[in-house]
Amino acid sequence: MAIKPLALQRGDTIGLVTLGSPLDATTINTRVQYLRNMGFNVVFGKYVYSIDGIVSAPADKRAEDLMDMFKNPNVKMILATRGGTGVQGILPYLDYDFIRENPKLVSGYSDITVLLNSLNQFSDLITFHSLMLIDFRPETPAYNFSQFFAATSTFTSPRAIINPPEVVRMGINPGNVTGPIVGGNITSIVNTLGTPYEIDTKDKILFLEDTHTPANMILRYFTQLSMAGKFNDCLGIIMGECTNCPVAYNTSYADLINSVLVPTGKPLITNLATGHGRYKAAIPVGARVNMNATNNTITVMEPVVSWGQAT
Fold this sequence. Notes:
alpha/beta; Rossmann fold; Glucose Oxidase, domain 1; 2 domains; 8-stranded mixed beta sheet; 14 strands; about 30% helix; globular
């Protein structure tokens, strides 16, 4: 059974970690002030501001920062500053048994996807494909904050995951399935294939999204996922947006969904507002979700946080 971390409340302490690419200090500081203005305390990992080329610090040091947050009894939520690249490198250095015994809220998306799924797969922890530090700013739509706090701070169950009115979601292949939901960024997930941290889609609902990836690369990724059995194993597929993803060879992201995913026959919903787009639905990775592609509904079937003690 998946472990539900403690719910987030105003006044709680959020631990910041930079687990992939570096983020400039000005952005970090302005976003931290926004968090503080919302009523949260903030503590910093040792390498939050660090820069080591493409990543913030060596993989073992970034992993150490993350583990320090799990060890800190005052930290309620661990929030990634950003994604970028390189998060996969920290996975061998994590103590999954300790994390299982000391569960906390973990939120992020983009390259943080690999961490969210690994923590669920190896520590049984429900994690949140939702906001990162960079999203805590006045320009962020109210929808995103509503989704974030509905997932991390309330016990509403069942809870429908809805799109904002201006983003039209579509049920493509009909079907009604219920199971744990996993997934996230396509590029990051494909990078786990053939490693000990390969995503497990067996009897699960798989959701996918991406950004700045041309259609010819998306085709490569879809083909790799298909050949690895990930589409065959899953119960259903939910596709998020592919933001700023160029057409290639006169083929679009939508064209590839129609030519590659529709023929799988799996229940299929497209255009979920999640990931890198302006609007970001909060997806509880590892939680039991009902996907009704016939009625175009996605419903979280259980509370995904606990009160008083992580369960």
